[in-house]
Structures are given as structure tokens and as C-alpha cells.
Design brief:
Elements lengths: L2 E2 L10 E2 L6 H20 L16 H17 L20 H10 L4 H4 L3
Antiparallel strand pairs: 1-2
Length: 116
């Protein structure tokens, strides 16, 4: 039975499936996560400005970094424009094949990516 997320209950896109992963699957997920994380960190593929989905960083650290940059620019007498965008459900529309191609292009190991 799908679980309701948010929004209009009549919209099927506002539900997610129930997914129970067996213990061996969870262990494999951790191995894959470790391998991908090491490759990304070793090749310095994540910029320091990346806060989402990064260990030790969050929306709060992103906000603090942004605020610090704005204050610095204002102190220098520069104008700061801010544009806010909402990418809700953006990941739901990402092509998995394109995502995997981009990961390979950034140097991630194809053998590891076969498990993704």
C-alpha cells in the first residue's frame, strides 16, 4: 500500500511505495556507498560549496555560508541579487541512464556503478 507524502491526496505522484530491504541488501548498499564516497572524495568531485547530501553539512551550514558571502559583498559596497528556485520532485524526473553516464564521466568506476 503506497504511503502518502504531501499535497493533494488525489494526485498519485504524492504517494511513495513501501520498500522493505533485506539485511544483505542493506549491507551491500553500505559497501556501494563507501566505494562511491571514497571515489568522489579522492577525486575531489564535490565542491566545498556543496552542502546537500554531504556528511557534516546541511541546509543550516549552507545558509550560514550564503549569509557570510552576502555580508562580505555588502560590506564591500556591492549589490547582491538573490533568486530562489523550487526544484520539488526534481530527482523524480532525473533519467537514471544520464545520471550514470555523468558519474562515469566524472571518473566513477563502472564496476561499482553496475550495482547502482
Amino acid at each position: 500500500m503506497p504511503i502518502y507524502k504531501k499535497g493533494q491526496k488525489e494526485d498519485p505522484g504524492n504517494y511513495r511505495p513501501v520498500s522493505l530491504t533485506l539485511v544483505p541488501g542493506k549491507i551491500m548498499e553500505q559497501f556501494i556507498l563507501g566505494a562511491l564516497t571514497r571515489q568522489v572524495q579522492d577525486n575531489q568531485r564535490i565542491r566545498l560549496s556543496q552542502h546537500g547530501f554531504t556528511k557534516g553539512r546541511s541546509c543550516l551550514t549552507n545558509l550560514i555560508s550564503f549569509y557570510d558571502q552576502v555580508i562580505h559583498l555588502v560590506d564591500e559596497g556591492k549589490v547582491v541579487d538573490v533568486i530562489y528556485l523550487n526544484f520539488s520532485k526534481a530527482f523524480d524526473t532525473v533519467s537514471h541512464s544520464i545520471l550514470l553516464e555523468k558519474l562515469v564521466a566524472h571518473g566513477l568506476d563502472r564496476c561499482t556503478l553496475h550495482w547502482v
